[in-house]
Amino acid sequence: MNNSGKYIKLVIFLTIIILSLIFFFWEGMSTYLNLFSSPGEISVPNIVGKNSNNARSILKKLNLELLIVEGRFSNDIPENVILEQNPAPGRTVKKGRDITVIVSSGPDLIEVPNLIGKELREAKIMLANFKLSVGNLRNEPNSKVEPEHVFKQTPEAGQRVKKMSKIDLYINSGAEPDITIPNWVGKNISEAKTSINKLKLTISEIKWVSNDESSQGSILKQSFEPGEKVYANTMVSLTVSLGPASELKEFKQELFNYTMPLGSSNQSVKIVLSDNTGSSVIYQGNNSSGDEIQVLATGFGNSEIIVYLNDQIDKRYKF
């Protein structure tokens, strides 16, 4: 056999060897990948802000599972809307993985207690204990309960409301109204406060408005007409002048926060605002240890907030 024939046979033999090696390598790699490769991986979608039912459907299509691990109260985010997720959006995970989420439980609602038949003072304490407050007070004759006791409330008992909501109370006057509303328009707010306290009325709101024609602290409007007859504890609202623009620098507002100290579960707290127009109670109730109390204080000139805890001064704050 000549050299040419030998060369051809060698080339054919080497070609067969190389093709065989390629075949076995390919088969080996395929077997390895089938036996040892990890399952398919998926990029986690962003489900924050979605309703949990919608999010569950989205994940299910990607072979992922939704797992709710916590609910948090939120006054801004509707119930069952997702607040947080883990793993974060964009992370790669294996199929079948649980995506844990924290959802909104909606507003932190409180069930309104039944105040019907309660004496007014007791009703106020109950509302404070439930972290609610008294709204408008109406005094009307009613034969179903004793005088000075609640015969109607709005919202009604059993309804769920947000913390610090106001509950309007209807009180049995037991008689016709006997307090005559004086004319406070044009008088100074300090003088009006003194008059209101002497008449056993309560200031529910003071609305301050800019007015270049009236001096600072002058009453511009009152919620009851002069000469009108009302009952004790009736809520009175006043509109008061801020004075000319040049005097506005004396007007101050402060969002005051107070945390109840450790102690008994039911402590009496009163917050008083003292300024150039006099002193007035801006919060009063019974609260438990750790409760957060927040009030908006409005004052003129040298202003101070005084906190009384169980009738003893606990804190003073100037602003």
**Mean pLDDT, rounded to whole units?**
84
Number of domains: 4
Q: Within the largest sheet, what's the order of strands? A: 18-17-20-21
Largest sheet: 4 strands, antiparallel
Rg = 37 Å
Percent range for β-strand residues: 35-45%
Q: Which CATH class of the largest domain applies here?
A: Mainly Beta
Task: Compute the separation of the termini in Å.
Answer: 115 Å
Portion of residues in helices?
Answer: 10-25%
Derived from helix and strand composition plus strand pairing, the structural class reads: alpha+beta
**If you consult CATH, what is the topology of the largest domain?**
Immunoglobulin-like
Provide the succession of SSEs. Answer: HEHEEEEEHEEEEEHEEEEEEEEEE
Low-confidence sequence ranges: 33-38
Description:
This protein has 319 residues and is α+β, with helices and mostly antiparallel strands. The protein folds into four domains: 41-104, Trypsin Inhibitor V, Chain A, CATH 3.30.10; 109-172, 2-Layer Sandwich (Trypsin Inhibitor V, Chain A), CATH 3.30.10.20; 177-243, 2-Layer Sandwich (Trypsin Inhibitor V, Chain A); 249-319, Immunoglobulin-like. 20% of the residues lie in helices and 39% in strands. The protein contains four helices and 21 strands. It has helices at residues 3-36, 52-61, 120-129, 189-198; strands spanning 41-43, 65-72, 82-86, 92-94, 98-104, 109-111, 133-140, 150-154, 160-162, 166-172, 179-180, 202-209, 219-222, 229-230, 235-241, 251-259, 267-275, 278-287, 292-300, 304-309, 312-318. The longest helix is centred in the N-terminal third of the chain and has 34 residues, at 3-36.
